[in-house]
Structure formats: structure tokens, C-alpha cells
Structure to design on (342 residues):
């Protein structure tokens, strides 16, 4: 008899007892005598019985699986974050199901419907740039599926959140550009609805104000979070009569687009235009010249979001309050924004 053919029903037939008795014996229920338990367990072991994981999960009302929704797995930031999610999930006996929204609200909503159908225990999510509506996340919560937000958050959703201090990262990057003598600092920002876009734009604006520099609307352009978007916006900035002498990029891909466009146009970095951006350091260091970067603890972000989610799943009571954890970015200065003498 093969391993896959052995069922509780077969064990019950061989021992001439009910299936419910076999089930309770395998769960070590106090309702079953030790003698019967021994008979059931000995036969199960001799037949190499393996319980059906789906049936077990239904009995326990838990699948030990969590969902993860990110905008784009190919983005190095999110692939690193997923690594952090899986690190904690695996250590606590959970599997992960990964979904991509591709920045689209309908894809995100489709993923949440699938998560509900598959009886996933909980969800960690970085919302899509189109996602201003939180109803689909509230519906999951109402079905008993907790949700934890990371990186991009919705202020109105009551849950745990883990994000980076985007304001501080943009403020420090802009101050660095000011300190090296830049006076016409542009910012290619992400999509307007996204929380990180607002926070980074505010940090950029406040740094200019602190140093008595005027905020110029024409030097702030919003872009999709793509290299093509960064390239196109850079062309627009450099076509201005009063072109910038420095550009702050809002993401890895936008910053890569800035770098590529400036090289195509023949501008030298940093002599003609200094460049700095929110960027993965290993990627930024491969560029010529290497790009100054505001790096983020993406792996740790995934770990912390998952720990908070699993605590919600395993807790018998709702938390007294939800917390927002703010992780710190790190400014790494490289050749794209250094003075020649530095």
C-alpha cells in the first residue's frame, strides 16, 4: 500500500473502529483510551500514514501560509523585502504566497480575493501606486485575515505598519547637494498618491526652505516608478532654460533613468549635474560614476512586518494598539555628487 493511498478511513476499516475515533486518537485526544491510541498509532506508522495537510489546516482553522503583495518582484528593494518576509515566516513554520500588483489596483484587489479564497492566514503588503481605496484590505480584516502594511502605507487603515523615514532621507540628501554648492536642485518624484512620494517631497522642500532656497515648481516632476519615467523626466528638466545643477531621484529605477539620460545627453556627473537617489547600494555602485544613494533596510523591513503579522495571527486577543515602526535610511555618498576636490 503506497503512502498516498493510506487514509483515516482505511485505518478505521482495518481496526474496525470509526473514522472519528481514529482522528481523535491521532490528535492524542483525552477522549480515547491509551490502548486504542496505541493501536491506531502503531498501525498508522506501519502503513506510513501521512495526514492530509489541507484537512489538518481546516481542522485547525489555519493554513500556516501568509500572502505577500508587492508592486514588482523584479525591483531589488522588494525582492530583498520578500527575503526578509520568508526568513521570519520559515523560522516560525509558515509558507509564503507571493503576488505582484504591477502598480495596478485591479491586480491588487484580485490578489486579495485569491488570498481570501485560499484561506491564507494573513497578508503583508506594499500597496500599488494606484491604491487609494482600502476597502479590499478592510474586507480581509473583517474575514479574520490580518493585514500588515510595509513601505507604502495607508494612513486610514487600522493595522501595524513598517516604513522607512522617507522624509529624513530626502531632507539629508537635499542638504548634501546644497553643501556641495548646488543651487538649482530638481526632484523627480514618484506617483502623487503614494505615501512615500509625499514624505520624500516634503523632506526635499523643507531642506530647501531651511537653507533659504526657493522651491521651484518646474523643478519637481512626478514619474511612474520606472527607468523610462526617470529618463523622460530628466530630458524634460534638462530642456529647461534654467536647467538644474542637481537631481534627486525618488527610487532605484527613476535614479537609473536619470543617470542614463544624463550620459546620453553628454552631461558629466557631478561637474555638470550632481545626482543622488533612493537606490540599492549594490546597484548604485555599478554605475559609472557610482551614484550617491539613500539606502533603506529592506530585508529588515520584511522581517519586522512579518513578525508583527504572525503575532496578530497567533494572538488570541486583538492588540491593545497598532504600532507604526519607522526604520532609518542611510546616506552613502559616491562620485555622482562629490566635488572634484573630495
Amino acid at each position: 500500500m503506497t503512502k498516498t493511498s493510506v487514509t483515516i478511513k482505511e485505518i478505521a476499516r482495518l481496526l474496525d473502529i470509526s473514522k472519528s475515533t481514529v482522528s481523535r486518537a491521532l490528535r492524542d485526544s483525552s477522549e480515547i483510551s491509551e490502548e486504542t491510541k496505541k493501536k491506531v498509532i502503531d498501525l498508522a506508522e506501519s502503513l506510513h500514514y501521512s495526514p492530509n495537510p489541507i484537512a489538518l489546516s481546516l481542522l485547525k482553522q489555519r493554513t500556516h501560509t501568509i500572502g505577500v503583495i508587492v508592486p514588482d518582484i523584479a525591483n531589488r528593494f522588494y525582492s530583498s523585502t520578500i527575503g526578509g518576509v520568508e526568513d521570519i515566516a520559515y523560522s516560525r513554520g509558515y509558507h509564503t504566497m507571493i503576488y505582484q500588483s504591477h502598480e495596478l489596483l485591479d491586480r491588487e484587489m484580485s490578489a486579495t480575493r485569491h488570498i481570501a479564497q485560499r484561506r491564507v492566514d494573513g497578508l503583508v503588503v506594499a500597496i500599488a501606486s494606484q491604491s487609494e481605496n482600502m476597502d479590499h484590505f478592510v474586507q480581509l480584516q473583517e474575514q479574520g485575515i490580518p493585514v500588515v502594511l510595509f513601505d507604502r502605507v495607508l494612513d486610514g487603515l487600522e493595522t501595524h505598519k513598517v516604513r522607512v523615514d522617507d522624509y529624513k532621507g530626502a531632507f539629508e540628501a537635499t542638504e548634501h547637494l546644497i553643501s556641495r554648492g548646488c543651487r538649482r536642485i530638481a526632484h523627480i518624484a514618484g506617483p502623487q498618491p503614494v505615501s512615500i512620494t509625499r514624505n520624500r517631497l516634503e523632506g526635499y522642500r523643507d531642506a530647501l526652505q531651511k537653507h533659504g532656497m526657493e522651491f521651484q515648481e518646474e523643478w519637481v516632476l512626478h514619474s511612474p516608478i520606472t527607468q523610462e519615467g526617470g529618463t523622460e523626466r530628466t530630458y524634460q528638466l534638462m530642456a529647461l532654460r534654467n536647467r538644474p545643477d542637481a537631481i534627486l531621484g525618488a527610487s532605484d529605477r527613476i535614479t537609473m533613468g536619470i543617470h542614463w539620460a544624463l550620459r546620453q545627453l553628454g552631461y558629466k556627473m557631478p561637474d555638470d549635474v550632481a545626482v543622488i537617489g533612493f537606490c540599492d547600494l549594490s546597484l548604485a555602485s555599478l554605475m559609472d560614476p557610482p551614484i550617491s544613494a539613500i539606502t533603506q533596510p529592506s530585508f529588515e523591513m520584511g522581517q519586522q512586518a512579518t513578525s508583527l503579522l504572525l503575532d496578530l495571527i497567533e494572538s488570541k486577543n486583538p492588540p491593545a494598539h497598532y504600532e507604526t515602526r519607522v526604520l532609518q535610511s542611510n546616506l552613502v555618498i559616491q562620485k555622482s555628487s562629490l566635488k572634484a576636490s573630495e
